[in-house]
Records
---
Amino acid sequence: MNILDLDHSLTAQEPVQRRLRSGQARRLDLLDLGPKLRLWSTERTYRHFTERLRQRTAHSGPQPEIFFVGSGDYHHLTPAFLADLQQPVSLIHFDNHPDWVRFAPRRHCGSWVNRALQLPHIQRIVTLGPCSDDLHNPQLRGGNLKALRHGRLQLFPWQHAPSKVWGRVGDGAGHQQQENHLHWRNLAGLDWPAFLEQMIDSLPTQAIWITIDKDVLASADAATNWDQGGMRLSHLLQALRSLAARKRILGIDVCGEFAAPAFSNAFKRWEARSDQPPAERWSEADLQRNATTNEALMALFEELFP
């Protein structure tokens, strides 16, 4: 396992410390780039990140490479993990936000899905779990409904009211259009094991990559810099087991820790204050849930990929 130390959030957790001491995990020191990469990044800084990433110890063997990344403010680093894959891949994306905004900066934690869609080997992205306001009037918020219309992106909210749209989007695996609203196939109301089986059967590739933002989880299971979704950890763990049993996982990246704000400029600080709930809502006891959840995730990965 690779621990990308961008913001101190992971190395403060006992399950991570224990695996670093035992050699089960490796730390890549990126603290100097953290504030510059956080929330959004220039192309130059992003390129510096990819160069540093290539300097890690070479991954070998058939098991997937696993990255723990820190705050969800770094989710736009996921395309760097995908860039060198050499075969057709489906990307399974767990998140409380669709991260599909088209008019955000190009390397932004709210727009990275569009960059991933541009990679020629990414055949489909399946986003699971959003509950956020991003799906309220998604066109006005810059949502990439074109990808939804063409089927390269499938989106399954955990729980969300119908979304108002203008024009024809059409039906998809996760929604039906009725007049000027998209009615979502909300996961909270479905038989979870049956849904997983159907979703996995429908994937166009045998190889998959899994990306997890822990803000997809209810606040009982995680405390992040963003608003929390409704999925429970038990649902996430069951999904990972099902995917591992049926597909070949090339890699997994996990973000969604809580990290105290540390940005490289005033505009980022303003954007974070505008978009994110106040950091003071979490206590130390709340933050301990992140370590507990990471212990469950790491233990599962060690079981599945010994």
Note: Residues 284-304 form the longest helix (21 residues).
---
Amino acid sequence: MQKNTSTNKIPDYAALAVAIKTWGKELGFHDVRIADANADITVIESGFFSWLGKGYHGEMDYMAKHGTKRTRPAELEPGTLRIISVCINYAPPSVKNSWDVIHSGERAFISRYALGRDYHKVLRSRLQKLADKMTVEAGAFNYRVFSDSAPVMEVAWAQKAGLGWRGKHTLLLSRQAGSMFFLGEMYVDLPLPVDEETENYCGSCSRCIDVCPTQAIVAPYEVDARRCISYLTIELKDSIPESLRPLIGNRIYGCDDCQLVCPWNKFAQITNENDFHVRNGLDDVSLIELFSWDQETFEAKLAGSAIRRIGHIQWLRNIAVGLGNAPYSVEIVQALQARLNDASVLVREHVQWALLQQNMKRTEQ
């Protein structure tokens, strides 16, 4: 944990909690809540290790290697008493309708959270500013800020803090903002008053389960990541299983289907953050255009984007699958043939598969 070194003070913790929420909103967070780091999450912890035991995490070894540090904050950061949980909306303005893009096979669908700049730095920077403000007002305390950057059960703690509830798709849901927001946390050693957990409002709805293209939501509140398109296009570094490729459609980076059908996302709020606005027209762009990007163009266009993390080879792999799933066209075949001798074995494999799909479609015409 980081420690502030200002003159030690004895704060009024109830007043400080109110102030933290005010400062957080002034910094651009849309909600700020506080959870007890010692809250009983036995059921959550048991469910998490059961999920790991089933192998549902796939190749995400980092999910398993930290043991109970992920579920017990004080084991990760000794002395942690509270978790300040924050959220910030990311739905961009003036974005192309997602379903229109998904149903247009020659266009590329990119999860809407990734259309702008990488959120990790934005959230951590804001959380650090919040910590600095607390440092001035509260005196010496220990803290550490996170945004999907360490073994933290961010949805579980956001739920405990009252930011929302875990939906059947496992994302956090809010009655005020749906699910289209980012989460961040600050572990602190301050005995702040905590907020109440909210109710679960999913009821009997199963739209997210029913719509999943790969049926990755194997049960309410349980996702087999190995089938999830977000995992397949982002986390998986090797070949995408052939049986799943046709189900991916034109989703080349992530998948929003479970969010798009969720009734609560009618309350999703448009972001005020310029960093999360659409860049490079990525909300409505052709697969062929993106497939033509060389390494230099990829790096330049996606500088500061979360997408850049997957690298150019994985990017081409994903797009090749999208092109294979697209309606037959001479232009698509030509684009694929241009990369038949790509230096990457991974790219060549997926290009060959895509060409086979295009040829099958041509013969069926």
Note: Residues 324 and 338 are 14 Å apart (CA to CA).
